[in-house]
Amino acid sequence: MTSATPSAAPLDPRGSQGAADAPATRADRIGDAALDLLVERGMRGLTHRAVDERAGLPQGSTSNHARTRQALLETAVRRQVQLESRVLTPEELPGAAGPGPTDGPDAGTGTAGGPDAGTGTAHAAAAAARPGAGTPFDADALVDALSLALHRYLTDHRALLVSRYELALEATRRPELRAFFDTAGSVFHGPLVAMTAAAGSTDPERHALSLIAWCEGLMFSCAAGSFHASVPSRAELRTGFEELLRGMLSPGPGPGQPESGGAADGRGGRCRA
Length: 273
Known about the structure:
Layout: E1 2-3, H1 26-41, H2 48-55, H3 61-65, H4 69-84, H5 119-128, H6 139-155, H7 158-171, H8 175-198, H9 204-223, E2 230-231, H10 234-249
Antiparallel strand pairs: 1-2
Helix pairs in contact: 1-2, 1-4, 1-7, 4-7, 4-8, 5-6, 5-8, 6-10, 7-8, 8-9
């Protein structure tokens, strides 16, 4: 793992891409302010009045938009999902019209799961696993997309991880938020399962869970755990994804056969599904 000094990162994940976006709506401003407060002050610091002040809105604006605390939390969850889905745009995926990981602003080791586990990386995987008619599934492109998204989380958008964990913990204490939280995050689960199936998985549900668990464990360790002061390089993340997919997709050696072949075959040992 390579050392990196954490810095205060904006919650808006467009920072690493410089992409223009439509002006923020009042709901967006309220959601952004709520997430900021969760990162800085925790759940106790999230109040309607504090959101008004942080968002620069007239007093009572947040209450008019979200009258109850449950409604305010749902607004925060909804905004969390929106921001995480932008960490990696379809145009940045390898082979797309936009810059790829080797020719864009994130070349080399440059800057790089809804609120449920692995949402941002699942979003990237879903786009990468949607080839055109007759186009074979490109596992190398998938690994590139996943490693780019994860690296961005760990370097540019660690605040998004902290706000996600705050919301996830609160959901364990609020059954009504748990239901909303799970529904919001489920939009990413299906595509990730579809991705593993397209890659040739014989058990896509279980393999999707393994990918999610690996991503979530790494993100927590680097955002709030024992590796908070260091993050893996883009190359290290890529190797990790290759190893995971190789283990999932390789058929395994038959009787008397050496452990070789399968998804590991190909140039330089890169994952070939």
